[in-house]
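Ticket #455: bound-state structure for F0G.
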Amino acid sequence: MRTIIEPFRIKVVEPIRMTTRDERECFVASADYNLFGLHSDDVLIDLLTDSGTSAMSAAQQAALIGGDESYAGSPSFFRFEAAVKSLFPFKHILPTHQGRAAEAILFSVLGGSHRQVPSNTHFDTTRANIEATGAEAVDLVIEEGHDPDNLHPFKGNMDTAKLERFLANAGDAVPCVMMTVTNNAGGGQPVSLANIRETAALAHKYGKPFIIDGCRFAENAYFIKLREPGQEGRHVEAIVRDMFAVADGMTMSAKKDAFANIGGWLALNDDHLAQSVRERLILTEGFPTYGGLAGRDLDAIAQGLKEIVDEDYLAYRIRTASYIAERLEKLGVPTVKPSGGHAIFINAKKFLPHIPPLEYPGQALAVAMYIEGGIRSCEIGTVMFGRHPDGSEHPAPMELVRMALPRRVYTQSHADYIVEVFETIAKNKDKLTGMRITWEPERMRHFSAKFEPIS
Ligand code: F0G
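RESOLUTION: The complex was predicted; output attached.
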């Protein structure tokens, strides 16, 4: 059959409150044209993030009831630890309340001024946690990863030639080598198993631990199965184990590929490093058998990890993104190719060439998507990256709008609706105007900046 059906039935529903175009014009104006300022019940299709927005399964809901809330030594922790270790065979598993907490704890020990941490592309919380310690976060993704139209199957790959030069020059300044799978900040693009192994071998050649940011590990493993020669006959679980077998640790947000609404972990093999971070964990997150989470959350993660490696789910997941991207391309809406796992990234620079980067074409498009169809997305362009610490403003390398897909939440008719909204936008796109910022905070302006349309 050509139709890939949602591999689940719906047992509990959450109503969407319908709104009119006129109402949405008022809502977005009173949010100062910043979509983070909307009340989420004024949104019809919420594609702001795939983080913490997944639908839980019946088995996960049942696991919540079985959660044990003991402060220390809870059976929920041991179920969580066993589920994590069955996919990621690291020695020490430290739960945290979300992914950035794992990053903060890790870099409180590994960071510091004059240190440099290479990765394919650091996600912004990883970068911020590294920089907060005075260290530098360095991105070394392959050249193809910067080109939205390049069809390379693994555009998240590390440029290993650059990494080798970097390690040879930077020497003792490098505390570890990192790798983000899939590469969220680079368009949700996967990394090949061969590249993971090569990167690990280079890190080890220079005596550095190799740490994977594994947020979307299952999607990455499924892309390896689909696209990497020799991997097609293997089960995703086996590929996951291979990806992590060469690593010395991982950071994880369970809000992505563990189907949880909250949670994360830091995993490590090194006893000494684990002891240092455990002390930090107790200080900021909690006792090491709950790490900032309720027992019920640990149980939801344990069950979610069993479900995320289901290949029927992953086929539906990856196909949803490519289905929307293909239909948008047919309408003349350019997207980052090939489509990634968790999101569709629209190339707003190419779609709206009449809006200059400093009038924020991505923001203009995101606002139009909300007004036209109640769709909430996220600008990833000059609004997010254009303001520099010295106060200057420069266009970002790409002007993207990310439509992130919550897991198991929306159906094919929601996907068709999204495409239909773009039909209207594409017809009238020449009438869209840019935006002006009327107020912005000193840091992370995309969350709270105020805008007005340029008339
Ligand atoms: N690493 C990656 C690759 C991420 O995508 C995220 C979060 C984190 C780390 C941090 O995890 O949110 O649990 O603290 N990404 C979300 C997003 C926020 O919308 O892409 P967290």
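RESOLUTION NOTES: The first helix runs from residue 21 to 30.
TICKET STATUS: resolved
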